[in-house]
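Budget justification note: compute hours in this period were largely spent on complex prediction jobs such as the one shown. Inputs:
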Amino acid sequence: GGIITQTPKFLIGQEGQKLTLKCQQNFNHDTMYWYRQDSGKGLRLIYYSITENDLQKGDLSEGYDASREKKSSFSLTVTSAQKNEMAVFLCASSISGVAETLYFGSGTRLTVL
Amino acid sequence: GDQVEQSPSALSLHEGTGSALRCNFTTTMRAVQWFQQNSRGSLINLFYLASGTKENGRLKSTFNSKESYSTLHIRDAQLEDSGTYFCAANAGAKLTFGGGTRLTVRP
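Corresponding output:
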């Protein structure tokens, strides 16, 4: 089996700060995703990538950048942290797209002071 | 508008009993996935269905694409089944999540 590792688990930043979240998978999956989960709510797609160096915007991409440096890693940057942005950010991967099962990391909890 | 409507939003069960969770779709979906989110926040994939019914232990899920709904049945509920259950479905290239059902199993 494989694993998805998200770092850091907890991230505290200042309003206006640029913050980067990282995700690594060893499933050798092609597609990776970043979702945001607000407290008590469902998941919303920020960015996804179907292969190395590919980026596709989700429903919530404004205020975020992403980078797929290599097949196994996918990073997300909050370009200017806002207080209403406090949430859990979840990384996921699948073999080749949404037609396949998604596997999730354990999340990064972002707090903006 | 929302494409995936999940119900109920919260559910309480006594150990040993069962119930069904449901997702209705406002557009034709190609496939549905069900996840359990535990108290640590980890999302565990329970089922992937493009059609029909799948069963795994005390869980059974059905996807009816023509009538635009999916169900997750839990029988003989155990304390460790507590958590939030999400369905997610795709019409095209994006997966849309429902709002979740928070399940509490009581002794």
